[in-house]
Amino acid sequence: MEPAAEIKTFVLDTNVLLHSAASMECFKDNDVVIPMAVIEELDKFKKNSDELGRNARRVIRHLDALREKCPACAGDPDKGLPLSAISPDASGRLFILSAGMIDDGSAGEADMVFDNDLLLDSPDNRILRLACFLRNSGRHVVFISKDINLRLKADALGLKVMDFERQKVKNFDRYTGFRDLEASPEVIAAAYEKRELPASAAEGLLTNEFVRFTSTADERKRVLLRKRNNGILTVPPHRVEKVWNLVPRNKEQRMALDLLLDPEVKLVTLMGGAGTGKTLLALAAALQQTLVEPVYERVLVSRPIIPLGNDIGFLPGSKESKLASWMQPIFDNLDFLLGGEEERKPKSSSRYSVEGLMNSHKLDLEALTYIRGRSIPRQFIIIDEAQNLTPHEVKTIISRCGSDSKMVLTGDPAQIDNPYLDASGNGLSYTVDRLKGAGVFGHVTLRKSERSDLAALAAEKL
After folding, report:
1. 226-254 residue pLDDT tens
2. From CA 195, how far away is CA 6, in angstroms rounded?
3. Which fold has domain 8-162?
4. Which CATH architecture has domain 259-461?
């Protein structure tokens, strides 16, 4: 018989609970410790109306529900509260402790560090002090934090440290939505003639994943296909070669337009660096299917309100005027699409055309703040800069999609402004990893910058 695994004691930092209110339930049969300093910090966030505030309130409610089960156990270092009371998947115990509750005088060297270098007026340092006391009392302590500096300090104190890995994607950039394979000249010829191939031509291909076959006899002969729900590989239709007078400049843009114009694909994610055309392609497909082909009734565009650098503070005016500054990248792309076509170019400025679309309610700009609780039917929804959203926020947004609507998430995981997210832990990467292969989902990673030679150079070298 194998020996029973040693029970670990996971000490959670505040940012872990703010990132995911369900984090207390993720450690199975191990013990979870929430320092008293974390409770104090949660109290500062509980009145916020954003995602941090909602998570803080949910954690506090869970703690209160556990406390009612056994009011005298939470602060007892030997008893604790059963986590099974809030989750059937968790069989460990929860403790709410401070260093004073377990100080048996054995802290020694660790306590000297806090007296001399890490002052206890900082909540972070009080959390670390508790973790050190638990370690010195003989527990197998693992400190969990999303704060890199705090993890560095904990590691220097000899604590085992980890980031909160739940909802993080391993090898997040591995699935790009397409593959390059070699094929015989006969396969290439059959694809050109029939515009489709059987699923056996590319084993292991996921639904809505693309494959580009290159002839083994002549590398100049290539064909691009997408695997459909029925397993057949089909060549993208000719309509993707020109959408709203926008001509795709590379194979990734052709693939993106194929997904964007397919009404059976309800959710599309586009990743790529600056200038790869993510937002432009999404807007072109949206205008095409709203104004030319009446597939959808209107275009709804939104993006997270997260500044790059210092925030400019309060903005006066209506919701539309407040959003105008945040939505300027959207206006820039619309200016290009509406003002760069001779047959559609209005007599006045292209800005007038954008305003005309908004006045006719064919184009709406919405703050994500107001999207909770909505049901959005028959609309083409574009969420720009989705890499700044948490997995929970993305789930909330996607679940707003009503009957006959389509949603597009665009973003660059290399440009994250949210301090609590990284390339593998943001909502965009999480969505791609969890939904790849689903019949209503498609993804493309765009690699080449087409904005300008300068933009391409900056994206590559800087």
Report:
1. 999 999 999 999 989 999 889 999 999 99
2. 59
3. Rossmann fold (3.40.50)
4. 3-Layer(aba) Sandwich (3.40)
